[in-house]
Amino acid sequence: MLYKKPQIQYYPYIVQRDDYKCVRCLGCVEQCSYDATFYDEELDVIWNKHEACVGCKRCEAMCPTDAIKIVPNPSRPIEHASWKWDLVMDAYLQANTGGIIITGIGNDKPYRIYFDHLVIDACQVTNPSIDPLREPMELRTFLGKKGEKIELTESESGKIALKTRLAPQLELETPIMFSAMSYGSINLNFQESMARAAVELGTYWNTGEGGLHKKLYPYAGRGIVQVASGRFGVSRDYLKAAAAVEIKIGQGAKPGIGGHLPGEKVNAEIAETRMIPPGSDAISPAPHHDIYSIEDLKQLVYAIKEATRYEKPVFVKIAAVHNVAAIASGIARAGADVIVVDGFRGGTGATPKSVRDHVGIPIEVAIAAVDRRLRQEGIRNEVSIVATGGIRSSADVIKIIALGADAAYIATVAMLAIGCTLCQTCNTGRCAWGITTNDPRLARRQNPDIASEQLYNLVRGWSHEMKEMLGAMGINSIESLKGNRLRLRSIGLTEKENEILGVLPAGE
Amino acid sequence: MKKVIIIEDYCIACYNCEVACVATHSRSQDPVKSYKREGLRGKTNAVVEVESPLAFSSMCRHCKHPWCMDACISGAIQRLDNGIVYLDEERCVGCWGCVVGCPYGAAHPNLAGKDKHAFKCDLCIKRLDAGLNPACVEACPNNALLYDETIEEREEVHK
Description:
- The structure holds 2 protein chains of 2 kinds.
- Chain A is α/β, with parallel strands linked by helices.
- Chain A has helices spanning 27-31, 58-62, 85-97, 188-201, 236-241, 268-274, 294-307, 324-333, 353-358, 363-376, 394-402, 412-417, 440-443, 448-473, 495-501; strands at 13-17, 37-40, 45-48, 68-72, 102-103, 118-120, 141-143, 152-154, 160-162, 170-172, 176-178, 205-206, 223-227, 244-248, 259-261, 282-284, 314-319, 338-342, 351-352, 384-388, 407-410, 488-490, 504-505.
- Chain A has an 8-stranded parallel sheet with strand order 11-21-20-18-17-14-13-12.
- In chain A, α15 (495-501) links the parallel β22 and β23.
- In chain A, α4 (188-201) packs across α14 (448-473).
- By secondary structure, chain B is an alpha+beta fold.
- Chain B contains 7 helices and 8 strands; from the N terminus they run βααββαββαββααβα.
- In chain B, the strands form 4 sheets. A two-stranded antiparallel sheet of chain B has the order 1-8. Chain B has a two-stranded antiparallel ribbon with strand order 2-3. Chain B has a two-stranded antiparallel ribbon with strand order 4-5.
- The interface between A and B is medium-sized, with 21 and 25 residues.
């Protein structure tokens, strides 16, 4: 039918097809999960319904003759400085639907990215740089409580033993972990890929709040399990199998908002893993209904510690918000071993667009504030800090560690490594790349053998780059960089921003 | 003997194996020319079967005791020394005995061109001689096709 509602005419993408190159193999028709491509047998032509195209570029990537290009529609609503086209489109959409606009991935608004205003120091003449190919370079780091001091005992035979009982630690071969993405929001193949890559890399992966699928128990030794407000999949075996337990209070993409996996996505396996009836909505309320204060959080932290016989570190994950430093201080005092701070560029499977784009603060500022506050209070050794939500490259990891983090979680970039094109339609459950979907037709598009190798390659490449950067700074261990703000200089930031980040302007 | 092994769990029905097969068995070695100039559309030995969500690319299994060879009245189908079941299109008289006889549906009648003959997978014999994998295996983006010995054969070797 030709007639469309007027406002649907302004679609964001056009599928350009070079008809001479197209051999009608019909791969694109099969690959498109958004019903934007179909074949007309009568005319022997492949048509596109441009208004259905989300710009995921799956057809473009899969076309064997390079006949397809997905391009932004040049005809867009007339925009000006105040009314950008996406705001106009959102207004049209809501006028037609009357609902909340749900979206995926992370904040895409042009807020200042502090990473891009920070530069890294290097050695020249007065102190030697280090060549990581010829000299040892240490990326290994430990997450967990570090004691005030270590006491040793000496036996009569002269044997020296450790008297102090160390708190449980996680040993990371590289300070990069795979962040929490739940089974349900992503598919099992991707989760298995992350698990396999983490085992291979000597780092950790995170189950997210969707429980631990029985197939992934062999990898649980390198897994961090989450306890969220919905308590999905939390059982004795779940806590016992993991390397660490993470209490999820908030998420950077949607601070103060709960999680919701629609019932139609809850198939039998997800239901079994989450321990809920099949087809029922999996709702994680925004607050934990037993946590209204730091004291309440302390009870949950110690309940988990009791349940795991004090053998595993307990993480607490919060979103980066205005008061993050004070909240982190409270969490440290509540007995947590590790604080995870999730910045407002962090991704998600589904969140109201208004929340994703306007709630929270950048991770760079949050980590700097948390690190400074804990140092001022003299309890920085009590907790490790993990940064997540907006880490895009190895340089970002180096900068965030210099700003005070112990390690970083990555998630969006892990999806990029296996093909994600940031089309921001994770919430539909029709991800054509087979990442954020459990539709059996689409989930098979991620082969764990390939995906785990790509994830491994990404982190390995980043690790090598980090070694190079550390060598340039004349530092031979990532531990020596933690909170070492003197290694950073800022360009184009205000005095106040420099003060908050704790860095000097370039040239000073 | 190494064959193309189909891992149906990871076939994503992208049809790249079909296009690669057609292009490899064409004069031009080019997908666009082979489909559009040489009229080879549909003359693919790898056929993607889709029964959503299941999909797989079916092709000749190069049987030890090929039924298609038994059914062939002109001797066009021979089992070569290396185990490849080869159909010589020049000798084929188009009786479709192999088409009917193959339990896998891997022998196809070529009805498009002037000369009516059957065709089937030759395991990319020329590519193998050049030390390359079969074209469909190379083209598969999701490792759903592997060129390897079958599990049964490997077990037989180890007995």
